[in-house]
Amino acid sequence: MKNYLSVTCLVIVSVLTTLVLLTPLHRATGDDLEWRRAAAHAKANSPVLVFVTLKEDGSISRESAYCGASTIANDRVLTAAHCVDNEARVESTWVYFQDGRKFKVKSMASFNIGLDLAVLNVPGVLPVGTVVISDDIATGDEIMGTGAPGGEMFKASWGRIDRIYTGQHDVCDGIRRPVPIGHKPHQVVETDRVSFFGYSGGGIWNGAGRLVGVHVRGSYWEPYPGYSCSESYRGEYLVFGAAVGGKTVIEFLNSKP
User: Fold this and answer.
1) How confident is the model at residue 257 (pLDDT cuts 50, 70, 90)?
2) Domains of the chain in sequence order
């Protein structure tokens, strides 16, 4: 009887071991505890840039536009360059956090319109935990993007990475264009996540809570006749997202302003 039980236990252990070895690596989903933790970390470090219209006396008239951003260091946030492409825009920008904090942008720290990346100096901003920027991405990875779609603060959308390539992110008509003269080719990450206007500048985060890109463009998969970049937001929603990848973000942050 004892030998029978021993043999039975060995068989069970052997079967379980085989199943574990044959089971494919699990990719986290939005419902997993790991993803929930990653999402909480991402959202805590994903402020919204609110651009305001000022009266002649300098007081705020109204909120006029929104973009996403990511805290990357003490007193600094990362966003898309097209969100802050002039001094007037920078001077009228506030940074809002989900926990209720609000800060006035002080100045531009670095700016590259060719890469569509910018870093803003924001006194008082502190990252929540450690923000890690990573270039460890692959086609098929699940990601989360943060921002303020349509002016709705602190929202997120989920999706997967469809393509990763070196080029530029001007793909609003579904065609990869040649890199303009003077623009350095950079890592572009295309995703299938819903990308309303307002997600620009927002972070692309992976299941480990790491920042792997910055959203810069949204488009339809199948453009309608006459579709062009200037018509990007016609229709109910955008189902295509292009981001500057983590590899290029790291290179940008390590370069001189």
Assistant:
1) low
2) 42-121 (2.40.10.10), 142-254 (2.40.10.10)
pLDDT digits (tens, 9 = 90+) for 2-47: 444 444 444 333 433 333 233 333 344 445 788 889 999 999 999 9
152 token code pair: 């709705």
The DSSP element (H or E) to which 246 belongs, if any, is helix 246-254
* Residue 184 near residue 159 (C-beta atoms within 8 A): no
Whose tokens are 């919204």? That residue is: 48
- Residue 209's identity, in one-letter code, is G
Helix, coil or strand: residue 44: helix
What is the rounded CA–CA span in Å between residue 230 and residue 87?
23
CB-based contacts of 174, cutoff 8 Å, min separation 6: 219, 220, 221, 222, 223, 240
Give φ, ψ of 20 to 5 degrees. Answer: -65, -45
pLDDT per residue over 116-166, tens digit each? 899 999 998 888 888 999 999 999 999 999 999 878 889 998 999 988 988
Whether the CB-CB separation of 83 and 67 falls below 8 Å is answered with yes
Q: Which residues contact 11 (CB under 8 A, 6 or more apart)?
A: none
pLDDT in tens, 217-241: 875 444 434 434 434 444 444 456 8
Whether 54 contacts 92, CB under 8 Å: yes
Ramachandran sector of residue 141 (left: φ over 0; alpha: ψ -120 to 50; beta: rest): beta
Nearest to 194 by CA among 168, 210, 215: 215
